[in-house]
Write a structure and sequence with these properties.
Order of helices and strands: EEEEEEEEEEEEEHE
Strand order of the largest sheet: 1-3-4-12-7-10
Helix content: under 10%
Structural class: mainly beta
CATH superfamily: Jelly Rolls
Radius of gyration: 14 Å
Number of domains: 1
CATH architecture: Sandwich
CATH class: Mainly Beta
Largest sheet: 6 strands, antiparallel
Number of strands: 14
Distance between the termini: 39 Å
CATH topology: Jelly Rolls
Strand content: over 45%
Length: 137
């Protein structure tokens, strides 16, 4: 068994996030594990850019209401205790509602290669972020 030291909280870079976002690395995939886990906190209105993960991503909502958008224009709401699974290669974005802070656990894996596990794409437009929401899939 091994205890690890917490890393300092990081700010989400402006090239990947709109608004104020902070993250704490929980698990960084020490060999042979390839899993990554971050606690991510979004200020009201903050959200990611479009992106995709080689092996998919799982989001577990801890506080607030998460918005998760897909390329077909659907924006899902996820509430505390709910988990959203984004399949491998699916382009998506996620973040907070305009009214509330939101916190989730982001869980994803690498494929063991030198290729990036996440491909970051363009910024989410205001129209995409503000689209009508649906409660669940």
């Amino acid at each position: 068994m091994k205890f690890t030291t917490a890393t300092p909280t990081g700010a989400g870079p402006a090239a990947q996030f709109t608004g104020n976002v902070w993250f704490d690395v929980i698990v960084a995939g020490q060999e042979p594990s390839r899993v990554r886990v971050n606690t991510v906190r979004f200020a009201p209105g903050a959200h990611t850019f479009w992106h995709r993960h080689v092996l998919g991503q799982t989001l577990h909502v801890v506080a607030g209401v998460a918005l998760v958008g897909t390329r077909d224009g659907v924006v899902f709401e996820a509430h505390p205790g709910e988990t959203v699974v984004c399949p491998p290669g699916e382009e998506h974005w996620h973040g907070a509602t305009p009214e509330l802070f939101m916190q989730h656990l982001a869980i994803w894996e690498t494929d063991g290669s030198d290729a990036p596990e996440t491909t970051w794409l363009e910024e989410v437009t205001e129209e995409q972020y503000s689209a009508a929401r649906t409660r669940s899939a």
